[in-house]
UniProtKB/TrEMBL annotation:
Keywords from the named record: DNA-binding, Transcription, Transcription regulation
InterPro entries noted in UniProt: HTH_HxlR, WH-like_DNA-bd_sf, WH_DNA-bd_sf
Organism (species): Larkinella insperata
Pfam families tied to this protein: HxlR
Protein name, entry field: Winged helix-turn-helix transcriptional regulator
Domain of life: Bacteria
PANTHER family: TRANSCRIPTIONAL REGULATOR, MARR FAMILY
Length: 111
């Protein structure tokens, strides 16, 4: 069996590493669900929580923090009583929507 050219192997390894990194960062149990909920408009923490009733507040807070850190979401704090925090998709987050749509379509094919 012939050995593939060295460049192809490096490209394959690089692509594989990029894929693994993306999967690790985006495909938690809740992250894409949060992106889906925020696709239409910005929402406050409590609104997101109501739209995803089976996620705990602690996990939602953790996932929102991670998505903000990754640049998928933008966070805006309103300094009022009570304090309100709004989340919206960033430009990076908008780029994730085709993946969300593809996974929804794929899931419906296997149900």
């Amino acid at each position: 069996m012939a050995t593939p050219p060295q460049e192809t192997t490096r490209e394959t390894l690089l692509t594989s590493a990029q894929l693994q990194q993306s999967v690790h960062r985006l495909l938690s149990k809740w992250r894409l669900s949060v992106v889906q909920v925020l696709r239409a408009s910005p929402l406050y923490f409590g609104d997101i929580r109501r739209r995803l009733p089976t996620i705990s507040e602690m996990i939602l807070a953790k996932e929102l923090k991670t998505l903000v850190r990754l640049g998928v979401l933008e966070r805006k704090v309103y300094r009022q009583a009570p304090r309100r925090v709004e989340y919206r998709l960033s430009q990076k987050g908008q780029q994730v929507l085709p993946l969300v749509d593809a996974l929804i379509g794929l899931g419906s094919q296997f149900s």
